[in-house]
Design a protein that fits this description.
heterodimer, A: alpha+beta, nine-stranded mixed sheet, 11 helices, B: 22 strands
C-alpha cells in the first residue's frame, strides 16, 4: 500500500503537467491506494471444510483525471489509470480523457471553495491497523474458530450424530488513502482510513438454531480482543435460540432490533435520501422534502467524522470537508446526501419544485455536497469510481427513547426481530414497500418479556417504510452498531417497536 | 509494450517458468496458480436526452493462489488479488508484481497452515472435519479460446456510443411529461484471461461483451413506475447498434429497447396497483419473469458452495441440501413437466469454455422431469460431494477468488403453445417481466415482483395491474406446474452479486412460459 506522501507527490506532479496544457480550462486529479484483506471463515462439523476458506487481499492503486476544455465550460472528459503513478501515465490518461469528451449542459465545474483547507493530521495516521501483519489476522481468525468449537462442545450436550454445526463469516481489514487537487484549490487534500469489521454466523442445524455476532473497530487491540469473543458469542446465541417456535401468519406487534432497522434503512430509506434520487424522481419521499416523514421522536444523520464510529472520513472524494448531514430532524426531512454535480443538478432542475414538494420552500435547501465518495467493493475508496452520494456512519437517534424493558412492554404480546435477510424495496424505491425474512436472533414476546426463541427463517415481513418509521409504538434509547452485508456505511441505530406488522409464513423444505 | 493485451502474450511464455521457480524456492509451497486478465472497456451514458458520462478504461489484474503443506500434512492456502494496470506494460514490472503477489499469498498460506495446526492440536478431535484441502486435484488442461465480435470495442469512438445512448434517451423523453426521468447506457468490453498453474494448465480465453441498460421513471397522476432492464450479448457493438437476431436471446437495437421499456413504464404508471386475492390462484408466468425464478430458486440453490454451507453467513444456504446424507439429489422437487439446466456452451451472456480453475464447462441438468439431479461445483466442492468437477468456479475479475456461479441457467422448454396455456385458464393472472426478488434464507420460499400483471378471465387477458408479485414456497410452486410453454427465451443478467466482498457477475437466465399456483402480493 502506497504512503500518503507518495500520493501527494504524484498528485502535485500530475497537476503541474495538466496546468501546462493550453486547451484546458480546469482539471482535477484524484489518486487512491486501497487494501482490503479478508479472512473468510468456514467450518462445518459434518462436511469437509478448510476452516479458513479464503485468506486474501485485494490491492488497488491508481488515479483519475477529469478535464474541462476552454472551448466550452460544459465540455468535460475523464479517464483512470491503475497501478502506474508516473508522468507517462498522466499523459496517457490525458489522451483518454480527450477521447471521452462530452458536452454535458449540466456539468457545474469543480468545487472552488474553500481554496485552502486547514488540515490537521488524521488520527488514523497513528492507527496500528495501518501496520497489521497477515500473521495477526490468521491468528485472530483461527482464534474465532477455536473459541466457537470449544464453546459449542463445552455448553451443548451434543448427543447428535450429526450436529450440523456451521460457522461462517469473515474478518475484514479495510484501509485506504487518497490525495486530490483541482485547478481551483491552492492545496492538495488528503485523507486516510483504517478499520476492521468481523461478522460471525453460527448454525446448529440439529437444533434448528442460528446465532450471530459482529464486531467493528479501529485498533489492533480491539481486533485481537474481538476475535475469540465473537466465536463464543455466536455459539452462545445459537444455543440460546434452539428449537424455536413457528408462529402463524398474521399481523403482529414487534420490536425491530438494531440490525433489522439498519437493514431497512440501508436498502430502502438511505437510497431515497440523496439529491440524485429526488432528481430522478425515484425517492420514496418524492415531493415531501421538508415534510414530516418519520415519527417526530426520530432523527437521522450521517456523521463521517463521528467518534462513535471506527470508519472516519474527513475529506470527500471531491476535496471538500466531509460534512455532517442532518437528514431527518424531529421526523422532518431536512437534508440529503449529495455530490457537487448532483446538488447543482437538482437545484437547477426545472421540475425542482414538483420533485421536492411544497414544504421545501420553507427550508430553501442548498444541499451541501458533503458526501461524495468514490467507493468500490466494501467501503474502500477507488480511483476508477465516479463520486456518488454515500453515507459513512448513519446514526439514528430517538428523543424520548426507552430502554429494552419498556420496548418489550410496549409490545406486550408479539415478536422480537433480531435479524432479517434479503431486504429489498420489492415494488421499486419510490413505493417504499419492503420485504425480507426473519433469519435469526429472534424471540416470541409474551407478557412484555422475551419468552421463547423464534425459529429462524419461518416468517416473511411485508411492510412499508412509512408504517415502520412514521408510527412506532416506542423507540429504543440507545443507538447500537449494526453491520449490513455489502453496505459501505456503518449504522448506529436504536430498536423500534411497531404495531400491526404483517408477517407471512415460510414453509419448511423437506431437507430441513 | 504499449498494448495492455500484449501482457497476456508475455505471461503465456513467462508465467510457467516463474511458477516453477517459485515452487522450487519456497519450502512447503505445494501448488501455485496465476490468473491474469487484460481488459479494455468503453461506457457512454445519457440522462433525459443529454450526455451524462463517457469513459474509456483499460485494466490489468492478477489473482494468485498458493497452497502450503506443512508438518503433519496440514495444508493452508492464501490468495492475493492486485490491479496492476499499466505496470503490466513493462515485462520487468509485471514479473515483479507477479513475484510479490506470489510471495504475499505464500506468507498467508504458511500462516494459515501454522494456525490451523495450532488449533487442530488445541481441539484434539474437535476439529476433525478440516480435511477438504487434501481432496482437491488441480487442472492440467491447455487450450486457447477466441472471442466473437464484428466491431472491436477498441476501434469505436466515444461519439458512436454516445449517439446511440442519446438517440434512445431523447426518444424516451419525447414521450412526454409522464416520463419523469430516464437513463440509457451502453457498455462494450474486450477481455483476455489467462489461467496458468503449477500442475501444467495453461488456458487463454478472450471475451467480448456488449451491454445496454435502461432505467425509466414514469408518473401519471398519483401513479408512478420505475423500470430497469438490460440487453447484453457476448458480441461487439453491433449487438446494440443493429440489434441481435437469435432464437434464444434476441434483442432490438438499444434505442428501440429503451423506447419500448419507457412505453411500458408509462402504461404501468396509469394502471392500478394490484389488489391481491387472499388465496392461492392460477398464475401463468412469462419467460422474462421465469428468468428470475430460474436465477433465484434453481440457479443459486444449485451452487454447491452455498449448498455446503460456505455462504451461510452471507447469501444463505440451499433448500436442496441439508447434509451430505439428507438432500434432494435424485428426489422429486417439482412437476414431471419441469426441467432445468445450466449450459455455459450456449451463446448466452453467461457463455464460457473453461471456468477459472481450468475445468471445462459443461451442461449440468438440475431438474429432470421434476427430479433434482445435481449442483454446479468447483474443484473443492466437487471433492466434498464426491463427484467430478463440472466447471462452474468463476470470478468476476482476476483479482477476486473464484466462487461457484451460474452460466446460462434456465427452465427447459416444453411443447405447449403459450397462448394455449393462457386460454385454458378460467380465472387467474398472467405475470410478466421480472422486477425485484426477495428470497428466504435457503431459497425455500420467495417473493418476486413482476413488471406487469394481467387478470385472466375465461382464457382472455383482462385488466393490467402494477406492483404485483408472486409469493410461494419453492417446492410447492414447482410441484404445481401443470403447463410448460415451447417459447424458451434467455435474458441477460448483468449484476448477480455474491461473495465477500461482493463480486458482480454477468450471466443468462430464462425459461418458457409456465403455469402454476401461488399467492400474489401487492403494495403494503
Amino acid at each position: 500500500m502506497r504512503t500518503l506522501n507518495e500520493l501527494k507527490r504524484f498528485v502535485k506532479e500530475a497537476a503541474g503537467l495538466l496546468a501546462r496544457e493550453k486547451d484546458l480550462a480546469a482539471y482535477e486529479v484524484y489518486c487512491s491506494t486501497g487494501e482490503h484483506k479478508v479472512v473468510r471463515l468456514n467450518y462445518t462439523s459434518d462436511i469437509p471444510s478448510r476452516g479458513i476458506e479464503e485468506f486474501k487481499s485485494l490491492d488497488a492503486d491508481g488515479f483519475a483525471l477529469r478535464i474541462v476544455t476552454r472551448r466550452d465550460p460544459h465540455e468535460t472528459g475523464s479517464a483512470s489509470i491503475a497501478g502506474d503513478l508516473s508522468a507517462a501515465s498522466v499523459r496517457e490518461a490525458l489522451t483518454r480523457a480527450r477521447h471521452s469528451l462530452i458536452i454535458d449542459p449540466h456539468f457545474p465545474g469543480f468545487p472552488t471553495d474553500p481554496r485552502r483547507l486547514d488540515q490537521a493530521a488524521s488520527a488514523v495516521e497513528h492507527s496500528d491497523l495501518l501496520r497489521v501483519k497477515d500473521t495477526v489476522l490468521a491468528t485472530a481468525a483461527w482464534d474465532t474458530i477455536a473459541a466457537a468449537i470449544t464453546t459449542l462442545y463445552q455448553q451443548a450436550p451434543l448427543k447428535l450424530a450429526h450436529p450440523g454445526f456451521v460457522l461462517g463469516g469473515d474478518l475484514s481489514l479495510i484501509r485506504d488513502r487518497i490525495a486530490l487537487i483541482n485547478s481551483a484549490f491552492e492545496d492538495i487534500r488528503s485523507d486516510e482510513s483504517a478499520h476492521f469489521i468481523s461478522s460471525v454466523t453460527v448454525l446448529v442445524e440439529g437444533f434448528d438454531a442460528k446465532g450471530t455476532a459482529t464486531g467493528i473497530g479501529g485498533s489492533l487491540a480491539e481486533l485481537q480482543n474481538t476475535a475469540a469473543r465473537l466465536g463464543r458469542d455466536a455459539v452462545a446465541r445459537a444455543l440460546e435460540l434452539r428449537h424455536g417456535e413457528h408462529p402463524d401468519a398474521g399481523q403482529y406487534r414487534v420490536v425491530l432490533g438494531p440490525q433489522p432497522v439498519a437493514e431497512i434503512l440501508n436498502y430502502v430509506v438511505m437510497p431515497s435520501l440523496t439529491t440524485r434520487a429526488f432528481q430522478a424522481a425515484s425517492s420514496a419521499y418524492q415531493g415531501r422534502f421538508g415534510a414530516e416523514v418519520m415519527d417526530p421522536r426520530l432523527s437521522l444523520i450521517d456523521e463521517p467524522d463521528s467518534r462513535q464510529s471506527p470508519l472516519r472520513r474527513r475529506i470527500t472524494c471531491e476535496g471538500l470537508p466531509s460534512g455532517k448531514t442532518e437528514l431527518i430532524r424531529g421526523g422532518r426531512l431536512v437534508g440529503l446526501l449529495s455530490t457537487f454535480y448532483d446538488s447543482h443538478r437538482l437545484v437547477t432542475d426545472e421540475r425542482r419544485e414538483e420533485k421536492l414538494g411544497p414544504s421545501a420552500v420553507e427550508f430553501k435547501p442548498e444541499f451541501a455536497p458533503g458526501s461524495a465518495y468514490r467507493l468500490g467493493e466494501g467501503a474502500s475508496r477507488r480511483f476508477d469510481s465516479h463520486p456518488g452520494a454515500n453515507a459513512t456512519s448513519v446514526i439514528m437517534r430517538a428523543h424520548e427513547g426507552v430502554d429494552q424493558k419498556d420496548l418489550l412492554a410496549s409490545v406486550r404480546e408479539g415478536i422480537y426481530i433480531g435479524r432479517v435477510w434479503y431486504t429489498y424495496p420489492i415494488n421499486g424505491q419510490r413505493a417504499g414497500d419492503v420485504t425480507c425474512t426473519i433469519s435469526g436472533d429472534s424471540y416470541v414476546i409474551r407478557d412484555g418479556k422475551l419468552a421463547a426463541p423464534l425459529a429462524p427463517n419461518c416468517l416473511r415481513i411485508n411492510a412499508n417504510i412509512e408504517h415502520i418509521f412514521a408510527h412506532p409504538l416506542s423507540i429504543g434509547r440507545k443507538s447500537e452498531p449494526a453491520i449490513v452485508w455489502g453496505a459501505p456505511e456503518l449504522y448506529f441505530v436504536p430498536a423500534l417497536a411497531v404495531a400491526d406488522l404483517r408477517l407471512s409464513p415460510v414453509g419448511a423444505s423437506e431437507s430441513d | 509494450m504499449t498494448d495492455i493485451f500484449e501482457a497476456v502474450d508475455f505471461l503465456r511464455e513467462a508465467a510457467e517458468p516463474a511458477l516453477r521457480r517459485f515452487i522450487r524456492g519456497h519450502r512447503g509451497a505445494s501448488y501455485a496458480e496465476v490468473r491474469f486478465e487484460s481488459m479494455f472497456g468503453r461506457v457512454a451514458v445519457a440522462h433525459d436526452g443529454e450526455p451524462r458520462d463517457s469513459n474509456e478504461s483499460e485494466a490489468a489484474a492478477l489473482g494468485i493462489t498458493v497452497h502450503h503443506s506443512g508438518a503433519g500434512g496440514i495444508t493452508g492456502h492464501g490468495q492475493t488479488g492486485a490491479e496492476i494496470g499499466r505496470l503490466a506494460l513493462s515485462h520487468n514490472k509485471l514479473l515483479a508484481s507477479l513475484n510479490t503477489a506470489l510471495g504475499d499469498a505464500f506468507e498467508r498460506a504458511r500462516a494459515n497452515a501454522r494456525e490451523k495446526a495450532r488449533v487442530t492440536k488445541l481441539l484434539g478431535g474437535g476439529a476433525r472435519e478440516l480435511s477438504l484441502s487434501g481432496l482437491i486435484e488441480p487442472s492440467n488442461v491447455r487450450d486457447e479460446v477466441e472471442a466473437i465480435f464484428v466491431r472491436d470495442p477498441r476501434t469505436l469512438t466515444s461519439g458512436e456510443m454516445m449517439n446511440l445512448c442519446r438517440e434512445g434517451s431523447t426518444a424516451v423523453s419525447a414521450l412526454g411529461s409522464e416520463i419523469a426521468y430516464n437513463a440509457v447506457a451502453a457498455t462494450t468490453e474486450l477481455r483476455h484471461e489467462l489461467f496458468v498453474n503449477s500442475a501444467g494448465a495453461l488456458i487463454s480465453q478472450r471475451f467480448a461483451f456488449a451491454q445496454g441498460d435502461c432505467y425509466v421513471v414514469a408518473q401519471s397522476g398519483s401513479g408512478h413506475q420505475e423500470i430497469y432492464d438490460t440487453i447484453g450479448q457476448q458480441r461487439g457493438f453491433e449487438a446494440l447498434n443493429e440489434g441481435w437476431r437469435d432464437e434464444l436471446m434476441p434483442n432490438p437495437p438499444l434505442p428501440r429497447f429503451a423506447l419500448e421499456l419507457a412505453d411500458e413504464a408509462r402504461q404501468l404508471a396509469r394502471a392500478p396497483v394490484l389488489q391481491p386475492p387472499d388465496r392461492e390462484v392460477v398464475v401463468v408466468t412469462d419467460p422474462h419473469f421465469n428468468a428470475l425464478v430460474a436465477h433465484e430458486i434453481v440457479g443459486h440453490p444449485s451452487e454447491a458452495d452455498r449448498a455446503l454451507k460456505m455462504e451461510a453467513a452471507y447469501a444463505g444456504r440451499s433448500w436442496l441440501l441439508h447434509s451430505l446424507e439428507q438432500n434432494q439429489i435424485g428426489r422429486p422437487i417439482g412437476s414431471p413437466l419441469l426441467w432445468a439446466c445450466s449450459d455455459p456452451g450456449l451463446n448466452g451472456y453467461g457463455h464460457y469454455r473453461y471456468d477459472h480453475e481450468g475445468t471445462p464447462g459443461r451442461r449440468i441438468v438440475h431438474l429432470e422431469g421434476g427430479v433434482f439431479r445435481g449442483f454446479l461445483n468447483s474443484r473443492a466442492t466437487a471433492a466434498a460431494l464426491g463427484v467430478e468437477p463440472n466447471g462452474s468456479a468463476r470470478a468476476s475479475e482476476a483479482w477476486h477468488v473464484p466462487l461457484v456461479r451460474m452460466s446460462n441457467t434456465f427452465f427447459m422448454p416444453g411443447e405447449t403453445d403459450p397462448q394455449q396455456i393462457i386460454s385454458d385458464v378460467e380465472h387467474g393472472y398472467y405475470v410478466c417481466g421480472n422486477s425485484i426478488p426477495s428470497i428466504a434464507e435457503s431459497r425455500e420460499n420467495f417473493r418476486i415482483s413482476a413488471r406487469r400483471v394481467y387478470e385472466i378471465e375465461h382464457g382472455q387477458l383482462g385488466r393490467l395491474f402494477r406492483s404485483g408479485s408472486v409469493m410461494a414456497d419453492s417446492k410447492r410452486f414447482f410441484t404445481l406446474v401443470d403447463a410448460v410453454g415451447n417459447d424458451l427465451r434467455l435474458i441477460a443478467i448483468p449484476n448477480c452479486g455474491k461473495g465477500q466482498p461482493m463480486q458482480v457477475k454477468r450471466m443468462s437466465n430464462g425459461g418458457p412460459t409456465l403455469r402454476s399456483r401461488a399467492r400474489l402480493g401487492g403494495s403494503s
